[in-house]
Amino acid sequence: MTKKVLAAMFISTLIFPRILAGLDLDVESLAGKEWYGLYFGGDKAGYAMNEVSIGDDGQIVIVEDARFMISMQGVRQDMRIFSRRTYEPDGALRSIEYEVEDATGTNTFEAQVDGDTMTLRTSLGGDVSVQELPAPEESLADAMKLGRLVRDEPEIGDELSYSLFEPLYQREITGVSRIVDEEMRVLQGVETKVYKIETLLEPLGLTTTSYVTEHGLTLEDQVDLLTMRLEPEELAKDVDYSNDVIISNAALLDAPLENPRERETLALRIEGPLSEDHLFNDERQTLEAANGDFRFKGRLLDVEDINPPELPVTDESVAQWLEPTPFVQSDHERVRDKAEEILDGETDAWKAARKLNAWVYENMRTTFSAQLSNTLDVLETMEGDCTEHSVLFIGLARAAGIPAREVAGLIYVEGPDPGFYFHQWAKVWVGKWVDMDPTFGQDVADATHIKLSEGDLFEQNRLLPLIGQIDVEVIDE
Q1: 464: which DSSP letter?
Q2: In the predicted model, is pLDDT for residue 310 greater than 50?
Q3: Which of 7, 44, 243, 290 has its CA 20 to 30 A from that of 137?
Q4: Is residue 173 helix, strand or coil?
């Protein structure tokens, strides 16, 4: 159930080109390949290759090729994330090629800069879209941020700002890198100064810690539980699928929770690195800081007072949640036709939402898979975990004229390892906002749902600092 959040972590981590830390103005000095082992929670999870090359025409090409090999409930999963960024000899961004390869196939993002315009071509679920965007500010200097920062004997506290265009989010991400410490290490028999650099990407709520030599080579990068470590190629590729990301990141309980699906309320004490961005308070939950930790109170939402509108919903205040996105292709003919078929003329928004929810729950085959989910792919395969259930339901809801958005956080799961697991569900506006869970077939999400994020993949990045860092205690038994 953590798949989409973990995919976001992997992808977000890779927007920081590692080998570029070694690039100075003399690009040729570090042309070549470097290999890194990828570790999640201390266990090997994959490997990455970074390469810098210079073409005969003087263009600089930076390639990152990362492969994640993990386990989900004992099932082996593979995901590949590939990017190629090309810069003109003067440092101007020329193009970006970005691919995410998983069990369903390859999704591609191709950006081409021409003057003041960038053309972004996206292929997801077999559907191709083309956008014209303003050319981003990114240049080779931004990609060289860490190398620039360690030049000329810098001091602790020195910092610089940069920006990189991220095709996955279709926006430019800004950040600030700052030297916070330095130390001497012996590397290959030579005493070398190593700088500790923290990079803050405030829009994503992420902080990366990098260890960079005085010559500009990145030895290690850390983003929460994910670490990239410089290794020989053979060692980097030594991965055995031993990292089960489902169990290892859950907040397990000492004893099962009684009546988890039927209870009216639930009170919890939560420990972990929650920030203001995670403290959602609404009709169905309160989550507040208290005495060094956090207190959660979940409630089963009362839906007796719903006064549902007729479809399609036309309320301007929720109109943004009717719009299609690259991952929720609610305007596609296949999605619209399926929603129309399921509803069979139903125009009451609340009844329609419940029909869609029931259809997804009854027709989806539940499996675990590491993939970058989108509505069209799921409609084709009709299988997946909570990510696929919710992205299909949301796509169908928007196609039917029901405002809907993604919600992510934790939910209690029974079984041999009872506890709170990372999860994704949906929220629909049917006269008021109602949390629905198509994975569990719940028209009203039960009281064990702990909302920590609301919105698309970009917003779900705010969950990344919490993965594997949450402890939960039931306080109302």
Answers
A1: G
A2: yes
A3: 7
A4: strand
Short-list 62, 41, 109, CA closest to 372: 109
Q: How far apart are CA 155 and CA 461, in angstroms?
A: 31
- Which residues pair with residue 129 across a beta bridge? 122
Helix intervals (H) in 14-144 = 140-143
In angstroms, the CA 243 to CA 209 distance is 22
Task: Determine the Cα–Cα distance for residues 192 and 186; give it in Å rounded to an integer.
Answer: 6
Please state the pTM of the whole predicted model.
0.84
For residues 55 and 191, give the distance between their C-alpha atoms in angstroms, rounded to a whole number.
34
C-alpha distances out from residue 241 to 15, 54, 244, 245, 385, Å:
24, 35, 8, 10, 20
Q: How far is CA 59 from the centre of its chain?
A: 31
| Backbone phi, psi, residue 407, to 5° | -130, 140
Burial class from Cβ neighbours inside 10 Å (0-12, 13-18, 19+) for residue 263 reads middle
| Burial annotation 372-382 (CB, 10 A radius, 16+ → b, else e) | bbbbbbbbebe
Provide the residue count of the chain: 477
Beta strands in 55-116 (DSSP E): 60-72, 75-87, 93-102, 105-114
CA dist list (Å): 319 to 3, 95, 130, 167:
28, 34, 23, 25
Give CA–CA dist 329/460, Å, rounded: 19
Closest CA to 437 of 261, 235, 291: 261
Contact 178, 207 (CB under 8 A): no
d(CA 153, CA 362): 63
* C-alpha span between 146 and 151 (Å, rounded): 9
Mean pLDDT of 165-192: 91
What are 142-163's pLDDT values in tens digits?
988 888 898 888 999 999 999 9
| The pairing of beta strand 206-213 with beta strand 285-290 | unpaired
Q: What is the pLDDT of residues 234-257, one digit of tens each?
A: 999 998 877 677 777 889 999 999
C-alpha–C-alpha distance, residues 268 and 218, integer Å: 41
Per-residue pLDDT for 18 more than 80? no
Report d(CA 413, CA 435) in Å as an integer.
Answer: 18
With CA atoms as reference, report the closest residue to 464 among 204, 199, 289. 204
Q: Provide the 8-state DSSP code for 350.
A: H
